[in-house]
Amino acid sequence: MRRAFAKAVQHSRSPFRPGPIPSGNSCVLSRQHQHCPAISPYFAVRSVGSNSAQERGQPVFSDAQRSTIYALSTPPGKAGVAVIRVSGQNAFGVWSRLVKSCERVPEPWKMERCRIIHPKTGGVLDDGLAVFFKGPKSFTTEDVLELHIHSGRAIISSVLEALSQLPFCRPAEPGEFTRRAFEGGRLDLTQVEGLKDLIDAETEGQRRLALKAVGGATRDLFERLRTEIIGCLAKLEALIDFGEGEDIEEGVYEEARDRAIELRRTIQSYLQDSRRGEIMRTGLRLTIFGPPNAGKSSLLNFLAQREAAIVTPVPGTTRDILELSLDLGGIPVIVSDTAGLRMTTDPVERIGVERARNAIQAADLALCVVSCEDLDDLEFPSSVKPLITDETFVLFNKSDLIRDSDTVSRLKGTDRWTTSLKSGEGTTEFLAGFAAALKRKYELNDDGEANRTPVITHARHRVHLESAARFIDAFLATSAEEIVLGAEELRYAAKAVGKVSGIIDVEDVLDALFRDFCIGK
C-alpha cells in the first residue's frame, strides 16, 4: 500500500536535485589509484615537477578534471590577513605541496602555524596559518584548505600563482564555493540567497532578515507548506488507487479540500505583505518631488549629510534624477531627487520633468516638498496637486518665511511636517516622524526589525507562491468526480512551493504521511 503514497509524489522530483560533483581526476587515474579517491601526493609531485606532462607519460588534465578550486575569499588590498580558500578532493595535495609545518599530516579543524612555499622552487612565500577542513564537515562538504596569509598585493599574487602551478587546481568561478555547498546539500536555495544578502547587508534590518534565511527559517516554513500540500495529494491518490473497494475512512476527500482551503488562506497571507521582505532586502524606493526651488535638493543633502546635489536659487537646476542609498531608522532607503515640476519650453528640462513623473509612479513612496511661500490659502501648487494622494508624505519647507504661527500649525498633520532646511528648524521633528511613519507602514519595531518576519524576500518566492495559489484554486474548482484532475493540480502546487528552496524530492515526507493516514483497518 505504500504505492499510493509513492505515486502521490513521484512527479515532484526536481531536475535540479542536488547531486555529487563529478570527479574528473578519478576518471583518468582510476586504474592506477583505485585505492584512493583523490590524486595521491606522490603523483602530484611528479606531475608538477616534470617539464612536460607528455614526456613523462602523464595525462594532461582538462578543465573538468581539475575539480579542486581556489580563490581569494577576502577583499583584495592591504590588510592584516587575507584568506585563500581551496576546495576539492585534492585539497590535501595542496597542503602537501604548499604548506610546510611541523605536522606532515594536518589535524582537521585545527589552525597550524606554517610557512607557505612555492611547489616548484621551494621558496618561502609567506609565514602564516593553515587550517584543513575534512569533508563532509566543511562549507562545501568537500575537503577544504584555508591559507591565512598577510594581505599584501605581492603576497596574495605569489600564493595564487603557486596554486596555478598545480595541475589538479584551477581558479574558482564566481559563486562556485557556495554552489558546491548547495549541490552537496549543505545549503538550499533560500539559504544561498540569505548568504548573499547577509554579505550585502548595509542596515541592521537587512542583517537580521538575511541571518534568519541563512539559519534555515525560510526553508523550514516553505517545507512545512509543501508537506501540507503533499498530505492533501496523498489522500487523493489513495482514493484514486483504492476507491470504494477498500476500507478507506469516510470524508477523506472533504478533509483534503478543507486542508487545501486553509493552505490557500495561508499562502494569501504571505502574498499580502505589502512587499515588506523585498523592500527590506533591496531598499525602499522614495522619490522626492515638488515645484522648482522648493528645497528638494537641499533635503537630499540634509538626509545624506553632504553636498550630494547642486543647490542654487536658479529654477530648473536639477535636470536629471539623482539617487542615494541611505539608512533611515534602520530601513534601507533609495532616495531619488527629481527635477522641479512646472511647464517649461526648455527641451532638456522638459525631459527631466517627464522622468520625474515616471519616477513618482515607480516609487514605493513619494515625498512632496513644497515651499510655504508657494501656498495659496494652504492649497498646493497646480503642478503637483494631481500627484498628491493619501499615501504621499508632504514636507512644507521654508517655514521661517511664515510669521503666523497658527498657519504653521495648520500645515502640520499626519505624515505632514513643516521645516526650514536653511535654519534647521523642525528638521529633528521631521526625521523622527518620517522614520516612525515608515516603521508603522511596514510593521517594523523601534530597532528596524519586522514585527512579523516577512516570508517573501525575493521576487521569485512571490512568483512560485502565486503559481501554487493558482493550482490550489484549480483543485478547489474541481469536483469529486474529477479527482484525477484535482490531484494533478495539487501535484503542480507542491512543485511550485518546492522550487522556492530547490528541494523538490519528497521521499522524506512519506513516513510522516503513513503515520498520519491509515488506509485500512
TrEMBL record:
InterPro entries: G_TrmE (IPR031168), GTP-bd (IPR006073), GTP-bd_TrmE_N (IPR018948), GTPase_MnmE (IPR004520), MnmE_dom2 (IPR027368), MnmE_helical (IPR025867), P-loop_NTPase (IPR027417), Small_GTP-bd (IPR005225)
Keyword tRNA processing belongs to the record: yes
One GO CC term on file: mitochondrion
Gene3D superfamilies referenced in this protein's UniProt entry, alphabetically: P-loop containing nucleotide triphosphate hydrolases, Probable tRNA modification gtpase trme, domain 1, tRNA modification GTPase MnmE domain 2
Database matches in Pfam families: MMR_HSR1, MnmE_helical, TrmE_N
Region described as Disordered: 1-20
Keywords for the protein's UniProt record, in alphabetical order: GTP-binding, Nucleotide-binding, tRNA processing
Span of domain TrmE-type G: 283-443
Keyword Ubl conjugation belongs to the record: no
Compartment annotation: Mitochondrion
Protein's GO biological process: tRNA methylation; tRNA wobble uridine modification
Primary subcellular site in the record, as a coarse category: mitochondrion
GO molecular-function term, one example from the UniProt record: GTPase activity
Recorded family membership: Belongs to the TRAFAC class TrmE-Era-EngA-EngB-Septin-like GTPase superfamily. TrmE GTPase family.
HAMAP family (alphabetical): GTPase_MnmE (MF_00379)
Name assigned to this protein: tRNA modification GTPase TrmE
Species this protein is from: Favolaschia claudopus
Organismal lineage: Eukaryota, Fungi, Dikarya, Basidiomycota, Agaricomycotina
